[in-house]
Amino acid sequence: MAVLTTGNGAAPSAEEPPDTGARHQLTAVTGLAALSLDAMASVAYGPEAIVLVLAAAGGYGLGFTLPVTLAIAGLLGVLVASYRQVIAAFPDGGGSYAVAKAHLGRRTSLVAAGSLVLDYVLNVAVAVTAGVAALTSAFPGLYGDRLWICLGVLALITAVNLRGIVDSARAFIVPTAVFVGAILVLIVVGLFRDAPVSTEASAGHASVLADNATTVGALLLLKAFASGCSALTGVEAIANAVPSFRAPAARRAMRAEVALGALLGVMLIGLSVLISRFGLQPVEGVTVLAQLADASLGHNAAFYVVQFATMVLLALSANTSFGGLPVLLKLLARDNYVPHVFGLKADRQVHRHGVVWLAAVSAVLLVFSGGDTNTLVPLFAIGVFVGFTIAQTGMVLHWKATRQWDKVLLNGLGALLTGVSAVVVTAAKFHDGAWLIVIALPLLVALFEAVHRAYGRIGDRLGVGRVPEPPHREHSLVLVPVSSLTRLTSEALTAAVSLGDEVRAVTVAHPDPEDRAATEALERDWALWNPGVPLVRLPSERRSLGRPITAYVRELAAACPDTRVTVLIPEAEPERLLQRLLQNQRGAVVAHAVRRDTDAAICRLRFRLGK
Questions:
Q1: Which of 231, 235, 242 is nearest to 98 (CA)?
Q2: Could you give the CA distance from residue 82 to residue 235 in angstroms, rounded to a whole number?
């Protein structure tokens, strides 16, 4: 059976099970839990990123925290509105890749896809290291083992996702609800405070606020805006994974997108209002969110609930990538830009190969960084801004074609803002490691192109898209390698005479006295048995099993070019795993040699051994 598809055909789905029911797909609520953790967790570092930049202008600069956050919230609204339209227009998923493919051309779509792949992979590594960093801050004795803890958390998230996206969503509903509830309670309680109820968390820590600054330049505000836009990472994940939702998939995905935008906007604005209300300043070693929890709720059990919920959600926010990237890889596989194996879907609606690949690459990044968040953060969020800009630009063309000018202006403004943010973030973080993304993105696009060309060449050789010649019958010759006379030999010859017009048994004879005696004994027994199949001796001066057989196959192919040669390799398959380890692997050696050196068909006959 052929397993390769090229052209516009879909990737193979040999692993698809009969059970593809709705119970393995997402609702709006479970979709929010499975695909929004990245965006939700960003409230832990988005406002802080703004504050840290504005701190360069002293207390006067911190006064611009709320205006910058409102600008980001406005951009969030534009993105949510845009991605709702992306979901409706492209219900097969793919987000910015699908939009660019439809409106901006193949090469731009690959840039969008590459940026999303990089961002998803980096999101896993950053999320896991950030969550573990929160853990080691609470328990400093674990700091030396942070890499192993990171790998353990990654293994846990991978295992949950291999069970299915719905199972992962159910597992993460409670942590998500606890985090969102804790942040909302923090905001509501804080709005009724006239002053911080506690400053114990920041006591004794040095301030990072600059002195004697009385002006704020446009470049500083732009940099603060760009840094704060890290809170918008993950907004695109729902649009990328629409096929994972239960029917009507597009409607459920749009509801989840709106809910995500509303919750994220409320939390970002609420936290920024409290930062201004309490006059908080960034300090070394304590997060802004921790200071807000201390100021609003007090240094008590509620404070630790917020910290623990933040730690858990940061670690689990990697799940956004496990929900979005495998679907994107499936679309790329369908379009022949990545190996078709990424299009396979196993039970529970899992794109298993995409999940495993994402986990493996993320593990390499964790080892490379030593489990240190600061090593990875400069690489993060650049790719998602590229994807945002491409998606917004594509939607501008989409609305222009239908003359919906209000939406053209909305998406045009979004494209301008995200494009400026992408340039500013890249420039600001270039020397901190962002240059790796600048190099990696073109290389990834080149890799997509190389895979596409390879599939194109294969398609040309297979004649994909052309009507093939009608099938015709040819003389069939089946060769059966044998080394002894057993029940396995009888079963193999029975199968061979059922398959071919002519059958020959072949045995490799070596010059050693012991081997020569064994070969002569086999020939005597064969003559007495007389199965009606000739036994051909293949002499070999070397201790080789595959080469004599492949040489004989090539000799037959040259002498009888109209004959179809099949090599049927009988193999005993013991019932127990330990017994399988005792096998000599002769069949695998022969199969490898025949496949490598000839065009003969290979048939491996498994003879199952009972107890």
A1: 242
A2: 11
